[in-house]
Amino acid sequence: MPALWIAHVTVTDEEAYGRYAKLAGPALEKHGGHFIARAARYVQLEGRDHPRNVVAKFPSLEAAETCYHSAEYQAALDHARGASERDLVIVETTE
After folding, report:
1. What values do phi and psi take at 57, rounded to 5?
2. Cβ–Cβ contacts within 10 Å for residue 44, how many?
3. pLDDT band at residue 77 using 50, 70 and 90 as cut-offs
């Protein structure tokens, strides 16, 4: 079953986070992921507001989790650490 990678992000260092974003896309694509929403308009209805919201779709929950732990994504993530506050969850879809 497909899965969604959902990130809610507050960027605190635009330059460093830009380096993360440049590397993260190719890492996701390598594991079959693609962005379906990325820093687009949104409405916060409940919970803590993060001005950047990202959703990527993967062929499976396992593929998304493997991507997260991959060397390529971890290298990208090194630039986001200290440059953002992030919440990330992977959710299996029903379709």
Report:
1. -110, 135
2. 11
3. very high
